[in-house]
Amino acid sequence: MIPATFDYHAPSTLDEALQLLARHGDAAKLLAGGHSLIPAMRFRLAQPEILIDLNKLDGLRYVREEGNVLAIGAMTPEAWLEESAVVQQRYPLLADAVSVIADPLVRNRGTVGGNLAHADPANDQPAVMLAYGATIVAQGPGGRRNIAIDDFFVNLFESSLQPGEIMLDIRVPAPGASSGGAYVKMERKVGDYATSAVAVQLTMNGPTISAARVALTNVNPVPMRSPGAEAALVGKAATEEAFEAAGKAAAAECDPSSDLRGSADYKRDVTRVLAKRAIRRAVARAQGRS
Amino acid sequence: MSTHKISVDVNGTPQSGEVDSRMLLVHFLREELRMTGTHIGCDTTSCGACTVILNGRAVKSCTVFAVQADGAKVETVEGLEQGGTLHPLQEGFWEKHGLQCGYCTPGMLMCAKYLLSKNPDPSEAEIRAGISGNLCRCTGYNNIVEAIRYAAEKMATPQEVAR
Amino acid sequence: MNHVADRFEKHSPVPEGSSANVPTTDELRITTPPKVCGMGHRMKRKEDPRFIRGRGNYVDDVKLPGMLHMDIVRSPYAHAKILKIDASEALKIPGVLAVITGEDLKKAGNLHWMPTLMSDTQMVLPIDKVVYQAQEVCAIIATDRYIAADAIEKVVVDYEPLPVVVDPFEALKDNVIVRDDKELKTNHIWHWEAGDKEATDQVFKDAATVIEEKMHIPRIHVSSIETCGMVANYDTAMQHMQIYMTSQAPHAHRTVFALVSGLPEHKIQIISPDIGGGFGGKVPVYPGYVICAVASLVTGKPVKWVEDRSENLQADSFARDYHITCRLAADKDGKITGMQVKTLADHGAADAAANPSKFPAGLFSIATGSYDMKAAHIEVDAAYTNKPPGGVAYRCSFRVTEAVHMIERMTDVLAHQLGEDPAAFRMKNFIKPEQFPYKSPTGWDYDSGNYHAALQKAMDVIGYHDLRKEQAEKRARGELMGIGISSFTEVVGAGPSRDYDILGIKMFDSAEIRIHPTGKAIARFGTKSQGQGHETTYAQILAEELGLPAQDIQVEEGDTDTAPYGLGTYASRSTPTAGAAAAMAARKIRAKAKKIAAYLLEVNEDDLEWKVDRFEVKGAPDQHKTIQDIAFAAYTNHPPGMEAGLEATDYYDPPNLTFPFGSYICVVDIDKGTGEVKVRRFVAVDDCGNIINPMVVEGQIHGGLTMGLAPALFEEIVYDENGQNLSGTFSDYLLPTAMETPKWETDRTITPSPHHPIGAKGVGESPTVGAPPAIANAVVDALWHLGVRHIDIPITPQKVWKLLRAKGVND
């Protein structure tokens, strides 16, 4: 399996990358970790004329707290998050997720930005960032802009990044007091995409859930939040009944396709089960029980 | 199609070549440098037979273009043995029967080297997780886990100073 | 229906004296010191120094001067007429030298068809139609593999899609004919029976209990991590064809190539270098090999062809695909009395199995397993479908896996239905140790066995009764835990020449030993290791027999110009056949060595006795000659009238097959929410007779168990209704990683084979054969109280979930 031919550029500055992108337009594809793009190219499902490799942009590789925000450079490999003490201690939802993305070697190369920009509902970071309510920072010919994650995923494999724009970083709001998050994924084996996975980030006020965001992986054509699940939780006591109601809502709102991972019905029910488990774990974490 | 002059430090030796932009790193190693220890087992970045260490991180060299390794340090199985002394992992795989057909072995060894660089004392569960991007069809993994534990213990023991 | 059962004779009786009742032990038999390292020693493998350094030499590592590369255009349709192949655009690409089509092969001497190892025929390249998706359509020869890959994209093939038949039951209706090249326009290939129908019918009439289950053992694929490939190097001056090939059976392949191509056999050299796993997938001759060899003949240059993984998964060597209906009868005491089986085998577009020619369904009639029953009757029909040629191998080629899965599942169902503990039920129904040698109702002569000992050991090791208590407690809490047993009987070591041949070539195997003057040796074999460790274990057999240190013995296989003829390595046959040949050849050498020792010591041969590595004068051990002394003398001071040298060759024709066995116990926990099955523990007690190298045996068992886990829970080749392979990459064909694989716990009993020269039996396939029913039985055991009797493998989470929800279990 050999990719078709292409021209290759590896800009060493962001400006250079933006200029190349402006010059080549649709003919060019950005290359981040390449772990979705290169296999697609080897099968000749993708045949870009020009690749603009962002791997020399070392300035886009970081994970750090900036005030009340976790800033992740778009070119940061997933493995950096696994190794980040900040992520492990303060962002358990993200920590859960990065340990189950693909496999350890893929995580050494695959980037957070690439995982999001591909806008693949099977990828894990979209649901994670939806649950966090992250902000994407992008720069293009028109300058720099912030994109709320809720506005980022437009269609299957289509984000709201405009032609000529490059993602710079992902800004994750730091969870407040009495907050907890969790990512629960079912996969057929390590390295597989999720059969279903559920990302939950919530805040407790005493026994009551005061805020919640619930997002789903690989059970919808577009990465999605489940408003019904969130509504079933917010303002409710953290009880198994509430969790079940949220799980049912998530199952009802998603739109999975049937494939070798299972039928649509199966995936819906698994989504219900996983949602309950993710919520249960998030609540426990918010209450300092785990 | 563009071609590129690249320079790569492979196992401490500078190597250079002119490559098409589409040439995969694994083919550069195997075909251009004739270092055939790194193998190819799939086309979906699944099997890990092609694992090398690129700038300190284990990666699947079938999913990196050779041109991307320009200026980088690449470690392959051929570089494990130093001055006629086997790496503790090579010893461990031999001692513990961590290989059968040998085809996944170079990738496993490089993955294990990376794993121990990050976690010098991994538990069985951590080893299993650490090698979960590498497929072996022969060993059922039991003895690979043992082999990596052997190496970890050996590397933790201070070597006797030769008089 | 074309009943061609007459073609396939029943197997002949085993000669007298080749079976005996032998005692079982747990203890390894070690008779040599570590310096010699004969049988029983955990010797580190002699082949490993090259593999751990990345210096193995696999086919894709071979690079010859001026070598060209081949890539293959494959059909997107499972059944279609080929109207036109236009390669003109491809040929315009610089570096593209040639296209090879079916028409070209036809002109080259009807090479567009080839025989399969089951005496069926298979297209090399098609002339008029394709019969499965990913079938080879034409090939491109180019100077570089990247250019060849570009060129196949530019070949335009006009297809006219034809109706597709994927389901073998549908195929038997003959509405769509897959093989219209055949005289008989039917998809029915053959019908085969074993056992006594009348006696079995009577047993079922008399039965107190009869159970029936339908099961499908689905298509799976061996997926050795190295795919298949070849470098063909035709020397036009010497008219000599040198071939590097991923071959488990290089000698047989040389003969097939000679017969197909018309090249004289002495002008063909097949070298099977290091092989990155075989498991049976490198036994068949694939079209790519033939085209590659033709490409070298045509161009006069070396040509390399190495499959991609997706090509390998979509076009090569499928195993299993048996649709089984099985009935079991029992008397009022819960004693199994009989078995009735009807099976439909889906062979895809050709019967490309590699079974001995008398056995179209392989050794499937071993299906009565470890149980003593009065009668059995087994029928198999085979059908063509629009799928790649199947019926080959997955670490067991001869259908023993299908047979064992069936009997072990049925035994469990019957035990549960009768309300008996599955372990106790097995103990009651096992063939008893004193019944060996045992004649099975389908005619097999089991050489030895002690099934009670193996199961008891497995139960002791895993703590069976405590697990049953834990299960009861958990069930009371609504948790789902299951315990599954498989007490399998394998049949390997094909085989005796009176019954076993591949394309007429008898299934002996061979060893040739040469001892050099300084007491070092080289030994060559007709088999071919693909990871089994022959360089080590054969050396240990010779060390055992000759007293030469195993380190001093170089073992070689795989080069047809140097190794003696043999049928190769598959079906766990290397130790039973070539391993026996090693011992027999060594004994010939020892006989000559004795004469030399007698001459040197000036005594009568009868006054000498063999001790580990020397002949001693009886009662005077200081008067002796070591094997090294004797070797030197064989070249420097041999007795007058005796030929110089110390060499021997043996072609070993086994008197019977060997019957390894074992008992496996598996514990699973089931997730009520997702249906996921987690294997918590797995204890495997194997009995493969005398052990040559326990480390190698354990390694074989670990790997084999993993290849039993895989089809039980993960792997399946799935087709849609158009015959499109939906699992044609490692993204969807799910090889277990270290995370899905449990830590295997192994143990052993040793019941030596009474007829094998060193009492060994073979072990490579046993765990792959025995493990799947242990896992399936554990899952069903966890769900039996809900009314679940059977689940087809692979037991995917969705299948379990569906049953759970249907039975009202939720999370």
> How many discrete structural domains of chain B?
2
**Which fold name corresponds to the CATH topology of the largest domain in chain A?**
Uridine Diphospho-n-acetylenolpyruvylglucosamine Reductase, domain 3
Q: CATH fold name of the largest domain in chain B, please?
A: Ubiquitin-like (UB roll)
Helix content of chain A: 25-40%
* Whole-number total of structural domains of chain A: 3
Largest sheet of chain B, order of strands side by side?
Answer: 2-1-5-3-4
Q: How would you state the average pLDDT of chain A, rounded?
A: 97
CA-based gyration radius of chain A: 19 Å
Oligomer description: heterotrimer
Number of helices of chain B: 5
Gyration radius from CA atoms of chain B, angstroms: 16 Å
With helices defined by DSSP (H or I, 4 residues minimum), what is the helix count of chain A?
Answer: 11
Sheet with the most strands of chain A?
A: 5 strands, antiparallel
Could you characterize what this model shows?
The complex is a heterotrimer of chains A (290), B (163) and C (811). Chain A is built from eleven helices and 14 strands. Chain A is α+β, with helices and mostly antiparallel strands and 290 residues long. Chain A has a five-stranded antiparallel β-sheet. In chain A, α9 runs antiparallel to α10 (240-253). Chain B is 32% helix and 17% strand. Chain B contains five helices and five strands, in the order ββαβββαααα. In chain B, strands 2-1-5-3-4 form a five-stranded mixed β-sheet, sandwiched between helices. The N and C termini of chain B lie far apart (58 Å). The model of chain B has no long low-confidence stretch (mean pLDDT 96). Helix content of chain C is 27%, strand content 24%. Chain C has 19 helices and 34 strands. Chain C has a seven-stranded mixed β-sheet with strand order 3-7-1-15-12-13-14, sandwiched between helices. A five-stranded mixed β-sheet of chain C has the order 9-19-18-17-10, with helices on both faces. Chain C has a four-stranded mixed β-sheet with strand order 22-32-33-34, sandwiched between helices. In chain C, α10 (400-417) runs parallel beside α18 (766-783). The interface between B and C is large, with 58 and 59 residues.
